[in-house]
What does this fold into?
Amino acid sequence: MRIVALVLLAAYCLAPFLWQVVTSLKPAAELVSLPPLLPSRPSAEHYVAIFAGHPLVRIIANSAIVAACTTALALALGALAAYALSMLRVRGRAAVLGVVLAISMFPPIATVSPLFLLLSALGLRDTLAALVLTYSTFSLPLAVWLLASFFDALPRELYVAARVDGCSAFGALWRVVLPLAAPGLAAAALLVFIFAWNEFLFALAFTATEASRTLPVGIALFPGLHEVPYGEIAAASVVATVPVVALAFAFQRRIVEGLTAGAVKG
Amino acid sequence: MRLEREQPWRYLAPAGLLLALVTVYPLAHVLWLSLERRSLLDPAPPAFAGLENYARLAADERFWNALGNTAYFVGVSVSLELMLGLAFALALQRAFRGRAALYGIILLPWAVPTAVSARMWEWMFEPDIGVLNYLLGAQVNWLGSPAWALNAAVLMDVWKSTPFVALLLIAGLQSIPQDLYRAAAVDGASRWTVLTRITLPLLAPMILVALLFRTIDAFRVFDAIYVLTGGGPADSTETLSIYAYRVLFQSLEFGYGSALAVSVFALVAVFALVYRMLLRKVLP
It folds into this structure.
């Protein structure tokens, strides 16, 4: 019974992605009919096509830059705020965390029109900076909540001892709290990175050209002249998914911890 | 013990400034925009219009259609995700070898970018050469018929989000004291009694948390459906977020589009408050 349930669950989660991998390896001639389910011989033609005919490299670089900068910015600001909330004495801590939680529930569509006007006024339309600014802010609530819950798990005596030994408040954060909370930082970093890599609505609204287009938008708007180029879309999808799936497999425990801690504490 | 020069507000300020600039200020601004007659195509300066946009919204059939679609999408997908997620969580409840690898697999649907999932499913839904019709031996026009398209979107969302629900519920199950199960076994309680008298009542707070997250997330659904169907055919999959986006960025009517966006915000806020009340009741 259990084994059946496990196999079913695994198949359920994997099948659509595996089908995409199979599709990406099928020669174009075999895509127009079913059966055969599997390619007679695996072909790399779609992968060659997407890298040769499209600005895919640029788009991948955009996604990587945006996700990396977002992660760095959100973690830096999130760690400072979480440190104040859990180690320093902040009056109204519960109220601050409540406001942050409420902000995390804002639907993106509710703020996209004024943000569009704001970013246009700042001359940031169609730039990577616009995305980094938006994504860092929208992932800040998650970073603050997660890091505050990980910092809370550390004994406050560590902080007090560091201060008594002559550390400044910032020194105590940098030398004592952050190294001890490294697993928590990793969990937060993974969730923020994956969020930024996958975000779609803001990217669609704020980007106009390849200068700032990211992978989800690039794949959604994948050009097709007459028919939908399913083989090439499949190849591009695999390319876009591999980094996040690799992260998910490599760090599954941290991610699960982060996801459930974020939900439970919230 | 009192330490000198802590000045916690200096540590909160950077995050606070960014949140104020990029979330709080836009929220105030969108409320203002929703009271204006403003189009990016119209060279005339925006004019204050009072509640005109909201009056238009109340009489707009396309708005009510989008609201209905959104409600259907939320209701059906969240209930399916909860039932399936609970079944998976119960099956995986006890620790076993290879569980870590399974977690990686469970995370996959959650980790794949939603826009990419939509294109994966679009290909599987293809009526003539798609793998779903081939495996089912059916001739369903998944995305091309108004009767099926929204259900197809639900199917995709269930695939994507059930694992997340299952993970939350597994965490909830693990926090139930094992003593209760041992006591129930000693008393000779049936499996059904254990499920309905111990597991489900103690899991209730986590079920509510999962419901809260999923409802709010499903209510603001955008990428999944925008990429899968674009809101069609014949607006049969147009949700509130998609309608608002089209009015904003295709018709460039920033006044009316902002009113639609505010309606999404208001509805999400109501959900959040109701769940918060429920959670307060359930939690000791």
